[in-house]
Amino acid sequence: MGFLEISNVTKSYGSTEVLHRVDIAVEEGEFLVLVGPSGCGKSTLLNMIAGLEEISSGDISINGRVMNGVHPAQRNIAMVFQSYALYPNMTVGQNITFGLEMHGVPRAERAAALADVAKLLQIETLLERKPGQLSGGQRQRVAMGRALVRNPDVFLFDEPLSNLDAKLRVDMRTEIKKLHEKLKTTMVYVTHDQIEALTLSTRIAVMYEGHVQQLGTPKEIYDTPANVFVATFMGSPAMNILPARVVVRDGRAMAQVTTSDGAQTELPFSQQTLTAWEGREILLGLRPEALTDPDGADRKSANIVPLRSRIEVTEAAGSDTFVTTTLGGRDVIARLRADAEATAGDMFDFAVNMEKAVAFDPQSETRIPGA
Ligand SMILES: Nc1ncnc2c1ncn2[C@@H]1O[C@H](COP(=O)(O)OP(=O)(O)OP(=O)(O)O)[C@@H](O)[C@H]1O
Ligand SMILES: [Mg+2]
Description:
This protein has helices spanning 42-50, 92-102, 107-121, 136-148, 166-183, 194-200, 218-223, 228-233, and strands at 4-13, 16-26, 31-35, 57-62, 65-66, 77-80, 154-158, 186-191, 203-208, 211-216, 240-249, 252-258, 264-268, 281-286, 291-292, 304-310, 313-317, 320-327, 330-337, 347-353, 358-360.
């Protein structure tokens, strides 16, 4: 039994079901991120946890208590919205303590709670200002402060950083992570940003079209994606997915891949389960960092394989150079060291880290078990 238990939850609007049988058990102190493209049902699920949306079927419980039908104010949760929803006519201090006042918390206690939160968020000097006199990042802190002051069982965040510029987003991401490490309160955080999901979470639920596609740690999601959707949604640039045929040489399964000039190359798998796929087509999944220049290859890998293919495009990106080549008839992206000598139009000797390769069933697009 999880601290926050979402069991068999569906949500329908009229006759349209937008969330289908969601099961997620969150342990106390976990940082769960719900991630997925626009419209996949993230906010709907979060709002059902908060009590802002009715549950069509299934149960949500917190700390052993079923929450279906319980008023939002009685759930001991605190939510931070994308819009912050601060009261413009109240000072920062009043915005933060307003909820406590509504709950009848005495003045002295409110002042003490405000002082604590203001110190934690480093907004002590802003308490007398109105929201209109704050920057976006400062407003975001105040919205956080309003949630923190309540000392809830669960924090819910719906894209709290999406109004901030890129630099501030990264800073605030770190702040939120530090805050979680300090408070150890259970958090559920919605974002469509896969980097935010990978860096903040203890576990991630990747959602698509109202289904949880995969629930796992960032490492599980990144290294062993459940299907092609998860593989290509999580990670940037996306995992390369290319058609290959399984051949077996001396008992070892190999991915036979067509290179840019039409030649066939054979890449030995580390996973032995793939011998069962002899002669069949698969989709081979290779992350850009598993396709490098030989000097950039992972030294810890026991399965680095050479591959010669033509470079079509090179793109310098500061610390790395990304190059495009064609494998299996598809454009694939390789991640080279910044000083690797790569010229568009030239043949290039790549190094493939087959220890990191994954394989998908081309029909169902799910990962082949053990691969
Ligand atoms: N009140 C409503 N009536 C009918 N359909 C709705 C309603 N609210 C949401 N939906 C539908 O439910 C689905 C899930 O919406 P939701 O807001 O949860 O998506 P989301 O993952 O949060 O997307 P975004 O990243 O754009 O915020 C969408 O298809 C949306 O159109
Ligand atoms: Mg949303």
